[in-house]
Amino acid sequence: MRRTTLRRTFELVGCATDYRSLHTLPIVRTTRIAWTNKGAILAERGDHRGALECYDKAIALDASIPQAWFNKGMSLVAGFQEEVLQAGRGAYLIPCDG
Predict the structure, then answer these.
(1) Rounded to two decimals, what is the model's pTM?
(2) Residue 74: CB partners within 8 Å, gap ≥ 6?
(3) 33 or 92, which is more confident?
(4) Are 12 and 31 in contact (CB under 8 A)?
(5) What is the mean pLDDT of residues 71-97?
(6) N or C: which end of the chain has fewer CB within 10 A?
(7) Concatenated DSSP letters of 7-24
(8) Residue 62 confidence (pLDDT) above 80
(9) How large is the average pLDDT for residues 16-31?
(10) Above 60 in pLDDT, residue 48?
(11) How far is 48 from 39, CA to CA, in rounded Å?
């Protein structure tokens, strides 16, 4: 993410300089772009559950924003990869009755 985009996101969520504490700050202006950007920052930091909450809020405000939907899908894949692998292993281990 470019520096200007991060700076704009900080302004929208009420954070002047430090994105490390971004997940604890409330959104000052409730906009779909602010929620989508906050989600992207959280996802980049590995907090996919927090990112999903942000994407859901963005989608609730405007369901026609493709970036929120795309990012939500990417966080679902990245954030739950281990659960997906465990489910696949479990299904593979079930014997077939042929």
Answers:
(1) 0.59
(2) 43
(3) 33
(4) yes
(5) 79
(6) C
(7) HHHHHHHT-SS-GGGGGG
(8) yes
(9) 56
(10) yes
(11) 8
Provide the token pair at 14. Answer: 């009420």
Q: String of b and e for 59-90 (b: at least 16 CB within 10 Å)?
A: bebeeebeebeebbeebeeebeeeeeeeeeee
Place of tokens 């971004």: 22
- Contact predicate 10/42, CB 8 Å: no
Nearest to 40 by CA among 25, 63, 22: 22
Residue 57 or residue 96, greater confidence: 57
The first and second tokens of residue 27, run together, are 């959104």
Residue 54: per-residue pLDDT: 94
Tokens 């939500």 sit at which residue? 72
Domains, the chain, with CATH or none:
3-93 (1.25.40)
Burial code of 31-47, b = ≥16 C-beta within 10 A, e = fewer? ebbbbbbbbbbbbeeeb
Q: What span, in angstroms and rounded, lies between the C-alpha atoms of 39 and 47?
A: 9
